Amino acid sequence: MNINFTLISQAIAFSVFVWFTVKFVWPPLLRAIEERQKQIADGLAAGERGRKELELADQRSSDVLKDAKQRAADIVTQAEKRAAEIIDEAKSVAKVEGDRIIAGAKAEIAHEIFSAKEELRQQVSGLVLTGATKILRREIDAKAHADLLTAIEAELK
Amino acid sequence: MAAELTPTSYINHHLTNMTTTVGDGSFWTLHLDALVMSVMLGIMGMGFLWLIVRKATPGVPSKTQAFVELLVEFIDSQVKNTFHGNRHVFIAPAALTIFVWVLLLNAMDLLPIDIMAWVYEHVFGLHNWRSVPTTDVNTTFALALSIWLLTIFFSIKVKGLGGWMHELFCTPFGTNIILWPLNLLFNMIEYISKPLSHSLRLFGNIYAGEIIFLLLGMWAATGVSGAFFSAILGAGWAIFHILIVSLQAFIFMMLTVVYLAMAHESH
C-alpha cells in the first residue's frame, strides 16, 4: 500500500471518463427521455381532448336527434292536417260539382219535357188541323177561313 | 514459483501489483495492472452506454435502451433527491460515471482469483497481475481526491473565494474572531477526513473481500476437505460479495453526490 504515480494516472483516466459521460452519454439519453415524456404528455392531453370532444359530439348528436324527432313529429302533424284539409276541400268540390251536375240534369230534363210538350202540342195541333181540314174541306173554303185557322193555330201554341 | 508455494508467497503473489517505473524515486512507479484494468473496464462501461445512447430513440425503446434508461433514471433520481441545482450539467453524469465504473472495477473481485492468475500468467505472460483496481489504494485515492478537488472548485465557483474563506473561518461555530482558529481547525479536519474516509471505505471493503477469497484459496490447498468447504464458503462469499460490490459502488457514488451538493450550499 504505497501511494505512487498510479494515483495521478487513475485521476486522469477518471476525469476523461467523466468528461466523456458529461459530453456524449448523458445529453442524448436525457434528450430521448425528455422527448418521450413530452410525447406521452401530449398523447395524454390528446386523449383527454378526444374524450371531451366525444362527449360534446354525443351531446350534439343527441340534440340533433331530438330536433329531428321534433321536426318529424311536426311534419307528420302538418301532413295530417293538410290531408284533412284536402279531404274537406275535395268533399266540398265534389258537392258543388254534384249540385252542378244535378242542376244541369234538372235543366236538361225540364228542357226535354218542354220540347216533348212542344212536339206533342205541334203534333196535336197538326192532327187537329188535319182533322179540321178534312172536316171542313167539304164545306169551307180554305181560303176564306185561313185567317181563322191561323188565329187558332197561334192560340194553340 | 510453484516450488516455493507457502501461504506467505501465495498471498504476496496475489497482492503484488505489476509495476513499471516512469521516473526517479519511489513515487514514479506505475501500477500497470490497476491502470490497464480500470481503463479497459471504463472504456467497456462507458463505451456500452455510448453505443446504446447514440441510437437512443424517444419512441419505443429497445430492451438494452430500457436497461440503460433504468440505470440513468435510478442515478438521476438519487442525485435529484440530494442536489437541487442543475444536475444535468455535471453532477448527474459524473455520478453515473462513478457508479458504473466503480461497480465494474469492484465486480472484478468476483472473478476466480487463481484461475485469473493462471490465465494472466500463461495466456498473456503476465506475472503478478491483479484483476481488481479498487484493491489498489491509488485507484480509490485518485477518485476521492479528484472529487475532493471538485468540491473545492465548486465551493469557490458557487460562493466565490471570499465566501469560501468566510465559510472556512466562520462556520460552524460563529463569526466571532476568537472562534476563527477553532472553525478553521474543524474545517481542516473535515476536509482531510472526507477524501480519506471516502477512498478507504471502498478500498477496505474490496480489499477485505479479496483477502477472504485468498484465505479460502489457501484452505483449499490443504486437502480434499479443505477444498470442499472452501468451495462452498467461497460460493457463499461470492454471492454475498455481489451485494458488497454493488453497495460499495452505490455508497461511493452517493457520497460523491453529497459532497458535491454540500459544496454548492452555503451554510
N/C terminus separation of chain A: 171 Å
Rounded to the nearest angstrom, the radius of gyration of chain A is 61 Å
**Poorly predicted ranges of chain B:** none
Q: Per DSSP, what share of the residues of chain A sits in E-state strands of 2 or more residues? A: under 5%
The DSSP helix count of chain A reads: 2
Largest sheet, strands/sense/barrel of chain A: none
- Structural class designation of chain B: mainly alpha
Q: How many strand segments of chain B?
A: 2
Average pLDDT score of chain B: 90
Helix content of chain B: over 70%
Polypeptide structure, described:
The complex is a heterodimer of chains A (157) and B (267). By secondary structure, chain A is mainly alpha-helical. Chain A has one domain (11-156). Helix content of chain A is 96%, strand content 0%. Chain A has two helices and no strands. In chain A, α1 (5-139) packs antiparallel against α2. The model of chain A has no long low-confidence stretch (mean pLDDT 90). Chain B has eight helices and two strands. Chain B has a two-stranded antiparallel sheet. The N and C termini of chain B lie far apart (58 Å). The interface between A and B is large, with 32 and 49 residues.
What's this, in brief?
With 157 residues, chain A is an all-alpha fold. Chain A is 96% helix and 0% strand.
